[in-house]
Amino acid sequence: MKGAVLVVNSGSSSIKYQLVDPDSGDAVAVGLVERIGEPDGLITHHHRGVERERRGPITDHARGLRLAFGMFAEDGVDLATAGIAAVGHRVVHGGEVFYRPTLVTVEVLAEIRRLSALAPLHNPANAIGIESAMAALPDVPHVAVFDTAFFHTLPAPARTYALDRDVARRHNVRRYGFHGTSHQFVSARVAEFLGRDLGELNQIVLHLGNGASASAVAGGRAVDTSMGLTPLEGLVMGTRSGDIDPGIVMHLRRSAGLDVDQIDDLLNRRSGLKGLSGVNDFRELRRLIEAGDADAALAYDVYIHRLRRYIGAYHLSLGGADTITFTAGVGENAPDVRADALAGLTRLGIEIDADRNAVRSHEPRVVSTDDSAVTVLVVPTNEELAIARFAREFAA
Ligand code: AMP
Q1: Which residue of 8, 40, 327, 388 sits 20 to 30 Å from the alpha carbon of 188, by its own alpha carbon?
Q2: What is the pLDDT of residues 298-309, one digit of tens each?
Q3: This prediction's pTM
Q4: Is 175 helix (H, G, I), strand (E, B) or coil?
C-alpha cells in the first residue's frame, strides 16, 4: 500500500477512483460512485479480486468520497494512514494556464473553477472532487492532471479557428484538445514497445472509446488533434456528433426553434452512433448490423468515413506517419474497425495483417504486415496509471 497513489476522476454525478501502484501499474482497488444526488446511489468497489456494492442515497460528492473511503476501511485499509504517496485528480480543462501536472493549492483550485466557463459539464465536478478529497486526506499532496495539457504544444495553425480574432481572444476561443493524458501515455508506450526513440517518431494515435479523438504526434509533441474548444469536435463518438457544419446550429435555432441547451443536449448526448442508430455501445451496434439494421450499418460507415479522413489528414500533415496506433474500448477490441479504417491503403504504405489484427490481447502489439511502411499497433491506454505516475512526482 505504501507509495500507492489514489486516482480520482469526478464527473457531474459520479466519481471513479483507483488505488494504484505507480511502478507496477497494479490496481489495488478500483471503484465507482454513481448517481450522486439521486435516491438510488450506488458504489461498486473492487479490492483484491472481491467486488462489493453499497446502495442508497448519496447526497453529494463529499459524501460519496466518504462512503468510498468507508469501503476501504471495511477492507482494513485506512487511507489516511496507509502511506499513500499522493492523490492524482483528472481535470478536464486546463485552459491556457495549466500545461503540466500541478500541485493543487487554494489558488489552483480557484483557477480550475474559473475555467468552468470553458468546460461547464466537467470542471465544476472536478473541483468538487478535489475539494472533497483534500478535506478527507489533508496530509498528502493533491495533484491536478489536465486532459488538455499534452496539447499545449499545438502549433498556431492547428490551434486557431478562423474567427474574428478579437472575439476569439476575448472569449478564449481556440482549439485545446482533450484525452491528452491518453495520447501522451500511448505515444510514449509505442516508442518504448518498438524500442525506438520517441523523439524521432511521427505518430498518429486514435483513441476510440465512447468519446473518441485522433492526434498527430511528432517527436513526442502533439502537433494536431481532433477535439477543439470542447470535446465535441472531431470524430463520430458514442453520443457526440463530432464535426458538423456550424450552420446547423443556427438552422436548428431558427427553423426547429431549439434553444442553446437543447442543441447542446442534441449534439452531446443524442448524436453520434446513438443518434444514427439508437445505440452508442459498439457491441450493440455490431449486433444490430448483423441483424440487418440499415441505420446501424450507416452509422458504422459514417464512423469509419470520418476516421479515415482524419488518418489521411494527419498522415499528410506529419509528412508521413511512422506509426498508427489504436487504443481505448473500441480501438483495442474491435478488429473490424481497425481493418476498415485502414483498408486499401497499401499505396500509402499502410497494410494490416489480418491474422495479427484478429488476435485478442491486453498487451501492446503490432497488427500491420512486415512489409507495411507504417507500423500499425494496438496499445491499451491506461489514463489512471499515467495520472498516478504524474502525481507521484510530487510525493514528499
Ligand atoms: P471506453 O470509453 O474506452 O471505455 O470505450 C467504450 C466503448 O468500447 C463502447 O462503445 C464499447 O462498446 C466499446 N467496446 C468495449 N469492448 C468492446 C469489444 N469487445 N468489441 C467492440 N467494442 C467494444
Answers
A1: 8
A2: 999 999 999 999
A3: 0.95
A4: coil
Residues 187/375, Cβ–Cβ less than 8 Å: no
**44 C-beta closer than 6 A to ligand 1:** no
Specify the pLDDT at position 270.
96
Range of the domain at 74: 5-146
Cβ atoms of 285 and 299 within 8 Å: the answer is yes
Q: Across-strand partners of 203?
A: 217, 323
Distance (angstroms) between ligand 1 centre and the Cα of 90 equals: 21
Q: What is the pLDDT of residue 13?
A: 86
For residues 246 and 141, state if they share a domain. no
DSSP-derived 3-state class of residue 337: helix
Helix, strand, or coil here: 301?
Answer: helix
The CATH number assigned to the domain holding 78 equals 3.30.420.40
- Are 347 and 237 contacting, i.e. CB atoms less than 8 angstroms apart? no
Q: Are 99 and 146 in contact (CB under 8 A)?
A: yes
**Any idea which residues carry the catalytic annotation?**
147
- Give the ligand 1 atom nearest the CA of 273: 10
